[in-house]
Amino acid sequence: MKNYLNKARTTMDKPHWIKDVVWERLCEHWTSEGFKKKSTQAKTNRASNYGASHTGGSISASQHRANMVKLSMNLIHCTVYLV
Asked: Domain limits at 13?
């Protein structure tokens, strides 16, 4: 579906399976400043040499446990989720 909409957006040719009302709203969205700004930022991010992680800086459960042990928070597994 993503590829079909991308092709429709780049060619601006309305596919037969999209209703006219929906097509008009899509065109409005694609030409809005907000969409253009996000699109430009996404292109810049994809072209970047910095390898972004999908975890967004999160740490693993085992790292949480190690951090709690360092802080003398010897908690059992279940109590972590009850707090």
From this structure: 2-47
Domain count, the chain: 1
53 and 45 in contact (C-beta within 8 Å)?
no
Q: Tally DSSP H helices, then E strands, for the chain.
A: 5, 0
Reported as type and span, the H/E element at residue 77 is helix 77-82
Stated pTM of the model: 0.55
pLDDT digits (tens, 9 = 90+) for 2-36: 889 999 999 999 999 999 999 999 999 999 999 99
Do residues 52 and 37 make contact, with C-beta atoms less than 8 angstroms apart?
A: no
Q: Which two tokens stand for residue 44?
A: 């810049």
- Compute the distance between CA of residue 25 and CA of residue 23 in angstroms, rounded to an integer: 5
Structure tokens at 65: 């446990």
Alpha carbon of residue 29 to chain centroid:
18
